[in-house]
Write a structure and sequence with these properties.
Chain A is built from 3 helices and no strands. Chain A has helices at about 5-40, 50-60, 65-85. Helix content of chain B is about 75%, strand content about 0%. Chain B has 26 helices and no strands. Classes of the chains: A mainly alpha, B mainly alpha.
Protein backbone atom coordinates (compact mmCIF):
# COMPACT_ATOMS: atom_id res chain seq x y z
CA UNK A 1 0.00 0.00 0.00
CA UNK A 2 1.07 3.57 -0.62
CA UNK A 3 2.81 4.73 2.55
CA UNK A 4 1.61 8.36 2.64
CA UNK A 5 -1.87 7.00 2.10
CA UNK A 6 -1.45 4.75 5.14
CA UNK A 7 -0.22 7.66 7.28
CA UNK A 8 -3.21 9.74 6.19
CA UNK A 9 -5.46 6.89 7.20
CA UNK A 10 -3.74 6.73 10.58
CA UNK A 11 -4.13 10.48 11.10
CA UNK A 12 -7.79 10.33 10.13
CA UNK A 13 -8.35 7.48 12.56
CA UNK A 14 -6.62 9.44 15.31
CA UNK A 15 -8.63 12.60 14.72
CA UNK A 16 -11.92 10.79 14.40
CA UNK A 17 -11.20 8.41 17.23
CA UNK A 18 -10.12 10.96 19.82
CA UNK A 19 -12.93 13.29 18.75
CA UNK A 20 -15.48 10.57 19.13
CA UNK A 21 -14.18 9.37 22.48
CA UNK A 22 -14.40 12.92 23.83
CA UNK A 23 -17.85 13.56 22.41
CA UNK A 24 -19.12 10.28 23.81
CA UNK A 25 -17.70 10.81 27.27
CA UNK A 26 -18.84 14.45 27.35
CA UNK A 27 -22.36 13.29 26.61
CA UNK A 28 -21.98 10.64 29.30
CA UNK A 29 -20.91 13.33 31.80
CA UNK A 30 -23.93 15.46 30.89
CA UNK A 31 -26.36 12.56 31.08
CA UNK A 32 -24.89 11.22 34.32
CA UNK A 33 -25.06 14.62 35.99
CA UNK A 34 -28.62 15.07 34.81
CA UNK A 35 -29.57 11.59 36.00
CA UNK A 36 -28.00 12.19 39.42
CA UNK A 37 -29.88 15.48 39.82
CA UNK A 38 -33.20 13.91 38.84
CA UNK A 39 -32.69 10.91 41.09
CA UNK A 40 -31.67 13.03 44.07
CA UNK A 41 -34.61 15.37 43.59
CA UNK A 42 -37.39 12.84 42.99
CA UNK A 43 -36.12 9.65 44.65
CA UNK A 44 -33.98 10.78 47.59
CA UNK A 45 -32.31 8.04 49.57
CA UNK A 46 -34.04 7.45 52.94
CA UNK A 47 -31.58 4.81 54.15
CA UNK A 48 -28.71 6.55 56.04
CA UNK A 49 -30.94 8.15 58.72
CA UNK A 50 -32.39 5.01 60.39
CA UNK A 51 -29.10 3.12 59.96
CA UNK A 52 -27.34 5.17 62.67
CA UNK A 53 -29.50 4.57 65.75
CA UNK A 54 -29.61 0.85 65.05
CA UNK A 55 -25.84 0.60 64.79
CA UNK A 56 -25.51 2.54 68.04
CA UNK A 57 -28.06 0.35 69.84
CA UNK A 58 -26.45 -3.01 69.09
CA UNK A 59 -23.20 -2.65 71.08
CA UNK A 60 -25.07 -0.92 73.94
CA UNK A 61 -27.13 -4.07 74.59
CA UNK A 62 -26.03 -5.59 77.91
CA UNK A 63 -25.55 -9.25 78.93
CA UNK A 64 -29.15 -9.47 80.18
CA UNK A 65 -30.49 -8.38 76.79
CA UNK A 66 -28.32 -11.02 75.12
CA UNK A 67 -29.82 -13.79 77.27
CA UNK A 68 -33.30 -12.57 76.59
CA UNK A 69 -32.52 -12.45 72.88
CA UNK A 70 -31.23 -16.04 72.90
CA UNK A 71 -34.34 -17.19 74.74
CA UNK A 72 -36.66 -15.45 72.28
CA UNK A 73 -34.83 -16.83 69.26
CA UNK A 74 -34.75 -20.40 70.55
CA UNK A 75 -38.45 -20.21 71.38
CA UNK A 76 -39.15 -19.03 67.85
CA UNK A 77 -37.08 -21.86 66.39
CA UNK A 78 -38.86 -24.44 68.50
CA UNK A 79 -42.22 -23.10 67.43
CA UNK A 80 -41.17 -23.11 63.77
CA UNK A 81 -39.89 -26.69 63.95
CA UNK A 82 -43.01 -27.99 65.67
CA UNK A 83 -45.18 -26.40 62.98
CA UNK A 84 -43.12 -27.66 60.07
CA UNK A 85 -42.68 -31.31 61.04
CA UNK A 86 -42.50 -33.58 58.06
CA UNK B 1 16.69 -52.01 16.26
CA UNK B 2 14.37 -50.65 13.57
CA UNK B 3 11.66 -50.12 16.14
CA UNK B 4 14.04 -48.23 18.38
CA UNK B 5 14.98 -45.95 15.50
CA UNK B 6 11.29 -45.42 14.72
CA UNK B 7 10.64 -44.46 18.29
CA UNK B 8 13.51 -41.99 18.21
CA UNK B 9 12.38 -40.46 14.90
CA UNK B 10 8.91 -39.80 16.31
CA UNK B 11 10.26 -38.36 19.55
CA UNK B 12 10.32 -34.68 20.41
CA UNK B 13 14.11 -34.59 20.51
CA UNK B 14 14.38 -35.59 16.87
CA UNK B 15 11.49 -33.54 15.56
CA UNK B 16 11.92 -30.26 17.39
CA UNK B 17 12.68 -27.19 15.32
CA UNK B 18 14.71 -24.32 16.69
CA UNK B 19 11.69 -21.99 16.61
CA UNK B 20 9.72 -24.37 18.80
CA UNK B 21 12.59 -24.66 21.23
CA UNK B 22 12.81 -20.87 21.47
CA UNK B 23 9.07 -20.59 22.05
CA UNK B 24 9.15 -23.24 24.78
CA UNK B 25 11.80 -21.12 26.47
CA UNK B 26 9.56 -18.05 26.02
CA UNK B 27 6.70 -20.00 27.62
CA UNK B 28 8.91 -20.98 30.53
CA UNK B 29 9.96 -17.35 30.81
CA UNK B 30 6.32 -16.27 31.08
CA UNK B 31 5.73 -18.90 33.76
CA UNK B 32 8.78 -17.59 35.63
CA UNK B 33 7.50 -14.02 35.50
CA UNK B 34 4.08 -15.14 36.68
CA UNK B 35 5.14 -17.48 39.47
CA UNK B 36 8.28 -15.86 40.78
CA UNK B 37 7.66 -12.18 40.02
CA UNK B 38 3.86 -12.24 40.41
CA UNK B 39 3.20 -10.57 37.03
CA UNK B 40 -0.53 -10.95 36.33
CA UNK B 41 -0.26 -14.63 37.34
CA UNK B 42 -3.93 -15.33 36.66
CA UNK B 43 -3.31 -14.84 32.98
CA UNK B 44 0.36 -15.43 32.44
CA UNK B 45 0.28 -18.93 33.97
CA UNK B 46 -2.32 -20.24 31.48
CA UNK B 47 -0.78 -18.24 28.61
CA UNK B 48 2.74 -19.47 29.34
CA UNK B 49 1.61 -23.05 29.75
CA UNK B 50 -0.51 -22.85 26.60
CA UNK B 51 2.52 -21.49 24.78
CA UNK B 52 4.55 -24.53 25.78
CA UNK B 53 1.75 -26.92 24.77
CA UNK B 54 1.40 -25.18 21.42
CA UNK B 55 5.05 -25.80 20.61
CA UNK B 56 5.26 -29.49 21.40
CA UNK B 57 6.70 -30.93 18.21
CA UNK B 58 4.40 -33.16 16.12
CA UNK B 59 1.50 -32.90 18.58
CA UNK B 60 -0.09 -30.06 16.60
CA UNK B 61 -2.23 -28.96 19.53
CA UNK B 62 -2.52 -25.40 18.28
CA UNK B 63 -3.25 -26.28 14.64
CA UNK B 64 -6.43 -26.90 12.71
CA UNK B 65 -7.19 -30.25 11.06
CA UNK B 66 -6.04 -28.89 7.71
CA UNK B 67 -2.72 -27.62 9.04
CA UNK B 68 -2.10 -30.93 10.76
CA UNK B 69 -2.98 -32.84 7.58
CA UNK B 70 -0.62 -30.67 5.53
CA UNK B 71 2.14 -31.32 8.01
CA UNK B 72 1.69 -35.05 8.53
CA UNK B 73 -0.60 -36.31 5.75
CA UNK B 74 0.20 -38.37 2.66
CA UNK B 75 0.78 -36.52 -0.64
CA UNK B 76 -2.59 -37.70 -2.06
CA UNK B 77 -4.45 -36.14 0.86
CA UNK B 78 -2.49 -32.91 0.51
CA UNK B 79 -3.36 -32.77 -3.18
CA UNK B 80 -7.03 -33.33 -2.33
CA UNK B 81 -6.96 -30.46 0.13
CA UNK B 82 -5.37 -28.31 -2.55
CA UNK B 83 -8.23 -29.19 -4.91
CA UNK B 84 -10.81 -28.36 -2.26
CA UNK B 85 -9.20 -24.92 -2.03
CA UNK B 86 -9.19 -24.65 -5.82
CA UNK B 87 -5.43 -24.74 -6.43
CA UNK B 88 -3.28 -27.25 -8.30
CA UNK B 89 -0.15 -27.18 -6.18
CA UNK B 90 0.93 -30.02 -3.89
CA UNK B 91 3.36 -27.83 -1.99
CA UNK B 92 2.09 -27.65 1.62
CA UNK B 93 3.34 -24.08 2.05
CA UNK B 94 1.39 -22.79 -0.95
CA UNK B 95 -1.71 -24.64 0.21
CA UNK B 96 -1.33 -23.23 3.72
CA UNK B 97 -1.29 -19.69 2.37
CA UNK B 98 -4.33 -20.39 0.22
CA UNK B 99 -6.06 -21.88 3.27
CA UNK B 100 -5.36 -18.80 5.36
CA UNK B 101 -6.94 -16.49 2.80
CA UNK B 102 -9.70 -18.85 1.58
CA UNK B 103 -13.38 -18.00 1.62
CA UNK B 104 -15.53 -19.48 4.34
CA UNK B 105 -16.97 -22.24 2.13
CA UNK B 106 -13.57 -23.26 0.69
CA UNK B 107 -12.23 -23.23 4.24
CA UNK B 108 -14.94 -25.65 5.33
CA UNK B 109 -14.43 -27.89 2.27
CA UNK B 110 -10.71 -28.21 3.03
CA UNK B 111 -11.44 -28.95 6.67
CA UNK B 112 -13.91 -31.67 5.65
CA UNK B 113 -11.28 -33.33 3.40
CA UNK B 114 -8.70 -33.23 6.19
CA UNK B 115 -11.14 -34.71 8.69
CA UNK B 116 -12.08 -37.50 6.24
CA UNK B 117 -8.38 -38.21 6.05
CA UNK B 118 -8.41 -38.84 9.81
CA UNK B 119 -7.01 -35.53 11.05
CA UNK B 120 -8.59 -33.43 13.75
CA UNK B 121 -8.27 -29.97 15.18
CA UNK B 122 -5.75 -29.73 17.96
CA UNK B 123 -7.09 -29.28 21.48
CA UNK B 124 -5.84 -25.70 21.82
CA UNK B 125 -7.17 -24.84 18.38
CA UNK B 126 -10.64 -25.93 19.52
CA UNK B 127 -10.31 -23.83 22.66
CA UNK B 128 -9.30 -20.90 20.48
CA UNK B 129 -12.31 -21.34 18.20
CA UNK B 130 -14.75 -21.46 21.11
CA UNK B 131 -13.18 -18.86 23.38
CA UNK B 132 -11.64 -16.23 21.13
CA UNK B 133 -12.63 -16.66 17.48
CA UNK B 134 -16.26 -16.54 18.56
CA UNK B 135 -15.54 -13.42 20.63
CA UNK B 136 -17.13 -15.08 23.67
CA UNK B 137 -14.33 -15.16 26.25
CA UNK B 138 -13.30 -11.48 26.25
CA UNK B 139 -16.95 -10.47 26.42
CA UNK B 140 -17.75 -12.78 29.33
CA UNK B 141 -14.70 -11.45 31.14
CA UNK B 142 -15.92 -7.94 30.47
CA UNK B 143 -19.24 -8.88 32.05
CA UNK B 144 -17.36 -10.10 35.11
CA UNK B 145 -15.34 -6.88 35.23
CA UNK B 146 -18.63 -4.97 35.08
CA UNK B 147 -19.93 -7.01 38.00
CA UNK B 148 -16.80 -6.14 39.98
CA UNK B 149 -16.82 -2.43 39.18
CA UNK B 150 -18.19 0.14 41.59
CA UNK B 151 -19.16 3.28 39.73
CA UNK B 152 -19.70 5.19 42.98
CA UNK B 153 -16.56 7.38 42.77
CA UNK B 154 -17.29 8.14 39.12
CA UNK B 155 -20.89 9.10 39.86
CA UNK B 156 -19.78 11.32 42.71
CA UNK B 157 -17.47 13.22 40.38
CA UNK B 158 -18.51 12.67 36.73
CA UNK B 159 -15.91 15.17 35.46
CA UNK B 160 -13.28 12.47 35.93
CA UNK B 161 -14.67 10.82 32.80
CA UNK B 162 -12.62 13.37 30.85
CA UNK B 163 -9.46 11.91 32.34
CA UNK B 164 -10.50 8.50 31.07
CA UNK B 165 -10.97 10.06 27.64
CA UNK B 166 -7.62 11.85 27.58
CA UNK B 167 -5.68 8.72 28.46
CA UNK B 168 -7.03 7.06 25.32
CA UNK B 169 -4.78 9.34 23.29
CA UNK B 170 -2.09 6.72 23.82
CA UNK B 171 -4.13 4.30 21.72
CA UNK B 172 -4.36 6.58 18.73
CA UNK B 173 -0.79 7.87 18.98
CA UNK B 174 0.35 4.24 18.80
CA UNK B 175 -1.74 3.62 15.70
CA UNK B 176 0.19 6.50 14.15
CA UNK B 177 3.45 4.97 15.40
CA UNK B 178 2.62 1.63 13.79
CA UNK B 179 1.75 3.13 10.42
CA UNK B 180 4.86 5.32 10.75
CA UNK B 181 7.06 2.24 11.14
CA UNK B 182 5.39 0.76 8.08
CA UNK B 183 5.91 3.95 6.08
CA UNK B 184 9.60 3.94 7.00
CA UNK B 185 9.75 0.37 5.72
CA UNK B 186 10.87 -1.07 9.07
CA UNK B 187 7.83 -3.27 9.68
CA UNK B 188 4.75 -4.25 7.83
CA UNK B 189 1.48 -3.39 9.48
CA UNK B 190 -1.83 -2.74 7.76
CA UNK B 191 -4.15 -0.12 9.22
CA UNK B 192 -6.12 -2.96 10.88
CA UNK B 193 -2.95 -4.30 12.50
CA UNK B 194 -2.06 -0.79 13.64
CA UNK B 195 -5.48 -0.32 15.22
CA UNK B 196 -5.25 -3.62 17.07
CA UNK B 197 -1.75 -2.77 18.35
CA UNK B 198 -2.89 0.66 19.50
CA UNK B 199 -5.52 -0.83 21.81
CA UNK B 200 -2.67 -2.14 23.98
CA UNK B 201 -2.40 1.49 25.12
CA UNK B 202 -5.86 1.17 26.62
CA UNK B 203 -4.30 -1.16 29.20
CA UNK B 204 -7.34 -3.36 29.04
CA UNK B 205 -6.65 -7.04 28.34
CA UNK B 206 -10.10 -8.26 27.26
CA UNK B 207 -10.65 -5.24 25.02
CA UNK B 208 -7.25 -5.72 23.37
CA UNK B 209 -7.98 -9.41 22.73
CA UNK B 210 -11.46 -8.68 21.42
CA UNK B 211 -10.24 -6.04 18.97
CA UNK B 212 -7.26 -8.14 17.88
CA UNK B 213 -9.47 -11.18 17.25
CA UNK B 214 -11.62 -9.05 14.93
CA UNK B 215 -8.99 -6.93 13.18
CA UNK B 216 -5.68 -8.82 13.30
CA UNK B 217 -6.02 -12.44 14.49
CA UNK B 218 -2.51 -13.27 13.28
CA UNK B 219 -1.06 -10.77 15.80
CA UNK B 220 -3.25 -11.87 18.69
CA UNK B 221 -0.58 -13.75 20.62
CA UNK B 222 1.87 -10.88 20.60
CA UNK B 223 -0.80 -8.29 21.38
CA UNK B 224 -2.26 -10.25 24.31
CA UNK B 225 1.12 -11.03 25.81
CA UNK B 226 2.26 -7.45 25.50
CA UNK B 227 -1.02 -6.06 26.90
CA UNK B 228 -0.93 -8.28 29.97
CA UNK B 229 2.80 -7.85 30.59
CA UNK B 230 2.48 -4.08 30.53
CA UNK B 231 -0.54 -4.19 32.80
CA UNK B 232 1.66 -6.01 35.27
CA UNK B 233 4.34 -3.35 34.77
CA UNK B 234 2.01 -0.41 35.49
CA UNK B 235 3.62 0.22 38.93
CA UNK B 236 6.98 0.56 37.21
CA UNK B 237 6.08 2.39 33.98
CA UNK B 238 3.80 5.06 35.37
CA UNK B 239 5.55 6.68 38.39
CA UNK B 240 8.52 8.23 36.53
CA UNK B 241 6.17 9.79 33.97
CA UNK B 242 3.88 11.09 36.72
CA UNK B 243 6.76 12.60 38.67
CA UNK B 244 8.26 14.21 35.58
CA UNK B 245 5.03 15.97 34.67
CA UNK B 246 3.98 17.29 38.08
CA UNK B 247 5.53 19.59 40.70
CA UNK B 248 5.67 18.49 44.37
CA UNK B 249 3.05 21.15 45.21
CA UNK B 250 0.65 19.67 42.68
CA UNK B 251 1.21 16.19 44.05
CA UNK B 252 0.35 17.40 47.57
CA UNK B 253 -2.99 18.80 46.49
CA UNK B 254 -5.80 17.40 48.64
CA UNK B 255 -9.16 16.75 47.01
CA UNK B 256 -12.56 17.38 48.57
CA UNK B 257 -14.37 14.38 49.99
CA UNK B 258 -16.67 12.59 47.53
CA UNK B 259 -20.39 12.91 48.12
CA UNK B 260 -22.33 9.73 48.95
CA UNK B 261 -24.01 8.17 45.92
CA UNK B 262 -27.49 6.69 46.18
CA UNK B 263 -28.37 3.15 45.15
CA UNK B 264 -30.84 4.40 42.55
CA UNK B 265 -28.09 6.37 40.83
CA UNK B 266 -25.90 3.29 40.71
CA UNK B 267 -28.70 1.24 39.18
CA UNK B 268 -29.49 3.95 36.64
CA UNK B 269 -25.90 4.49 35.47
CA UNK B 270 -25.38 1.25 33.49
CA UNK B 271 -28.74 1.83 31.82
CA UNK B 272 -27.82 5.40 30.88
CA UNK B 273 -24.50 4.18 29.49
CA UNK B 274 -26.19 1.38 27.56
CA UNK B 275 -28.70 3.73 25.96
CA UNK B 276 -25.92 6.13 24.99
CA UNK B 277 -23.96 3.27 23.38
CA UNK B 278 -27.06 2.05 21.57
CA UNK B 279 -27.73 5.51 20.17
CA UNK B 280 -24.19 6.58 19.27
CA UNK B 281 -21.85 3.65 18.76
CA UNK B 282 -23.48 0.25 18.17
CA UNK B 283 -20.03 -1.19 17.35
CA UNK B 284 -19.05 -0.87 21.00
CA UNK B 285 -22.30 -2.58 22.04
CA UNK B 286 -20.85 -6.09 22.53
CA UNK B 287 -18.17 -4.83 24.93
CA UNK B 288 -20.07 -2.12 26.76
CA UNK B 289 -23.33 -4.06 26.64
CA UNK B 290 -21.82 -6.96 28.54
CA UNK B 291 -20.07 -4.52 30.87
CA UNK B 292 -23.32 -2.71 31.68
CA UNK B 293 -25.13 -6.03 32.12
CA UNK B 294 -22.56 -7.20 34.65
CA UNK B 295 -22.74 -3.90 36.50
CA UNK B 296 -26.53 -3.89 36.58
CA UNK B 297 -26.51 -7.40 38.08
CA UNK B 298 -24.19 -6.11 40.77
CA UNK B 299 -26.08 -2.97 41.63
CA UNK B 300 -29.72 -4.02 41.30
CA UNK B 301 -29.37 -6.24 44.36
CA UNK B 302 -31.97 -8.83 43.38
CA UNK B 303 -29.69 -11.26 41.52
CA UNK B 304 -26.89 -11.71 44.03
CA UNK B 305 -26.29 -15.27 42.83
CA UNK B 306 -25.80 -14.28 39.19
CA UNK B 307 -23.58 -11.37 40.10
CA UNK B 308 -21.52 -13.61 42.34
CA UNK B 309 -21.09 -16.19 39.57
CA UNK B 310 -20.17 -13.54 37.01
CA UNK B 311 -17.44 -12.02 39.17
CA UNK B 312 -16.04 -15.27 40.60
CA UNK B 313 -16.69 -18.72 39.17
CA UNK B 314 -17.50 -17.75 35.60
CA UNK B 315 -14.70 -15.25 35.14
CA UNK B 316 -12.23 -17.81 36.52
CA UNK B 317 -13.39 -20.56 34.17
CA UNK B 318 -13.27 -18.26 31.19
CA UNK B 319 -9.85 -16.93 32.18
CA UNK B 320 -8.42 -20.46 32.05
CA UNK B 321 -9.66 -21.04 28.51
CA UNK B 322 -8.80 -17.54 27.38
CA UNK B 323 -5.26 -17.93 28.66
CA UNK B 324 -4.75 -21.31 27.00
CA UNK B 325 -6.23 -20.01 23.74
CA UNK B 326 -3.93 -17.00 23.73
CA UNK B 327 -1.08 -19.40 24.46
CA UNK B 328 -2.04 -21.36 21.34
CA UNK B 329 -1.16 -18.27 19.33
CA UNK B 330 2.39 -18.43 20.64
CA UNK B 331 3.36 -21.11 18.13
CA UNK B 332 6.76 -20.41 16.64
CA UNK B 333 5.67 -19.68 13.07
CA UNK B 334 3.27 -16.98 14.26
CA UNK B 335 5.21 -15.39 17.10
CA UNK B 336 8.90 -15.36 16.13
CA UNK B 337 8.75 -12.41 13.86
CA UNK B 338 10.24 -8.94 13.72
CA UNK B 339 6.70 -7.56 14.03
CA UNK B 340 6.41 -9.00 17.54
CA UNK B 341 9.32 -6.84 18.65
CA UNK B 342 7.58 -3.86 17.07
CA UNK B 343 4.39 -4.67 18.97
CA UNK B 344 6.21 -4.96 22.29
CA UNK B 345 7.97 -1.64 21.67
CA UNK B 346 4.86 0.19 20.49
CA UNK B 347 2.86 -1.20 23.42
CA UNK B 348 5.07 0.41 26.02
CA UNK B 349 5.04 3.72 24.13
CA UNK B 350 1.24 3.57 23.99
CA UNK B 351 1.17 3.09 27.73
CA UNK B 352 3.51 5.98 28.41
CA UNK B 353 1.65 8.41 26.16
CA UNK B 354 -1.69 7.42 27.69
CA UNK B 355 -0.37 8.05 31.20
CA UNK B 356 1.15 11.40 30.21
CA UNK B 357 -2.02 12.61 28.52
CA UNK B 358 -4.11 11.68 31.54
CA UNK B 359 -1.83 13.64 33.87
CA UNK B 360 -1.74 16.67 31.54
CA UNK B 361 -5.52 16.64 31.20
CA UNK B 362 -5.86 16.56 34.99
CA UNK B 363 -3.54 19.58 35.26
CA UNK B 364 -5.64 21.42 32.72
CA UNK B 365 -8.87 20.55 34.52
CA UNK B 366 -7.39 21.67 37.83
CA UNK B 367 -6.86 25.15 36.30
CA UNK B 368 -10.53 25.53 35.39
CA UNK B 369 -12.30 23.48 38.02
CA UNK B 370 -13.92 24.99 41.11
CA UNK B 371 -12.83 22.03 43.27
CA UNK B 372 -9.13 21.04 43.29
CA UNK B 373 -8.08 18.08 41.14
CA UNK B 374 -4.80 16.36 41.94
CA UNK B 375 -3.01 15.72 38.61
CA UNK B 376 -1.87 12.33 39.88
CA UNK B 377 -5.33 10.86 39.42
CA UNK B 378 -5.06 11.56 35.69
CA UNK B 379 -2.69 8.68 35.15
CA UNK B 380 -5.42 6.32 36.37
CA UNK B 381 -7.29 7.12 33.16
CA UNK B 382 -5.55 4.19 31.47
CA UNK B 383 -7.86 1.41 32.53
CA UNK B 384 -5.76 -1.29 34.32
CA UNK B 385 -8.27 -1.47 37.21
CA UNK B 386 -7.39 -1.11 40.07
CA UNK B 387 -3.62 -1.09 39.63
CA UNK B 388 -3.41 2.38 38.07
CA UNK B 389 -5.54 3.87 40.85
CA UNK B 390 -3.28 2.29 43.47
CA UNK B 391 -0.24 3.81 41.78
CA UNK B 392 -1.85 7.28 41.94
CA UNK B 393 -2.61 6.72 45.61
CA UNK B 394 0.94 5.63 46.36
CA UNK B 395 2.62 8.57 44.64
CA UNK B 396 0.16 10.91 46.38
CA UNK B 397 1.02 9.45 49.78
CA UNK B 398 4.74 9.92 49.07
CA UNK B 399 4.19 13.66 48.60
CA UNK B 400 1.68 14.08 51.41
CA UNK B 401 1.15 11.21 53.88
CA UNK B 402 -2.33 12.53 54.78
CA UNK B 403 -3.58 12.53 51.23
CA UNK B 404 -5.51 9.42 50.21
CA UNK B 405 -6.29 9.57 46.51
CA UNK B 406 -7.46 5.99 45.99
CA UNK B 407 -11.19 6.66 45.80
CA UNK B 408 -10.64 9.79 43.70
CA UNK B 409 -8.47 7.80 41.31
CA UNK B 410 -11.05 5.02 40.96
CA UNK B 411 -13.28 7.47 39.05
CA UNK B 412 -10.87 8.03 36.15
CA UNK B 413 -9.86 4.39 36.39
CA UNK B 414 -13.31 3.01 35.59
CA UNK B 415 -13.78 5.88 33.14
CA UNK B 416 -10.70 4.50 31.39
CA UNK B 417 -12.45 1.15 30.95
CA UNK B 418 -15.38 2.89 29.30
CA UNK B 419 -13.03 5.09 27.27
CA UNK B 420 -11.00 2.23 25.88
CA UNK B 421 -14.13 0.26 25.01
CA UNK B 422 -15.42 3.31 23.14
CA UNK B 423 -12.07 3.67 21.37
CA UNK B 424 -12.27 -0.03 20.47
CA UNK B 425 -15.74 0.52 19.03
CA UNK B 426 -14.43 3.40 16.91
CA UNK B 427 -11.57 1.25 15.61
CA UNK B 428 -13.91 -1.60 14.69
CA UNK B 429 -16.27 0.85 13.02
CA UNK B 430 -13.65 2.61 10.90
CA UNK B 431 -11.19 -0.08 9.90
CA UNK B 432 -13.04 -3.34 10.59
Amino acid sequence: MNSSNLINEGLALMGFGMGFVFVFLTLLVVMTTLMSRLVNRFLPEPVPVPAKPRAAAAPAAGAGDQEQLVAVISAAIRQYRSRHKQ
Amino acid sequence: MDKLINLFVSSGIYQIQWGQAVMIVVGLGLLFLAIKKNFEPLLLVPIGFGGILANIPEAGLAFSAVENALHLGKPELIAQIGQALGIDSVDPKVIKQAYASASHSAHNAAAAVAMDGGFNNGMLYNFYLVAIASGAAPLIIFMGVGAMTDFGPLLANPKTLFLGAAAQFGIFATVLGAVGLTALGLMEFSIQDAAAIGIIGGADGPTAIYVASLLAPQLLGAIAVSAYSYMALVPMIQPPIMRALTTPEERKLAMTQLRPVSKTEKIMFPLVLLILVAMLLPDAAPLLGMFCFGNLMRECGVVERLSDTAQNALINIVTIFLGLSVGSKLSADKFLDINTLGILGLGIIAFGIGTACGVLMAKLMNKFSSTPINPLIGSAGVSAVPMAARVSNKIGLEANPQNFLLMHAMGPNVAGVIGSAVAAGVMIKFVG
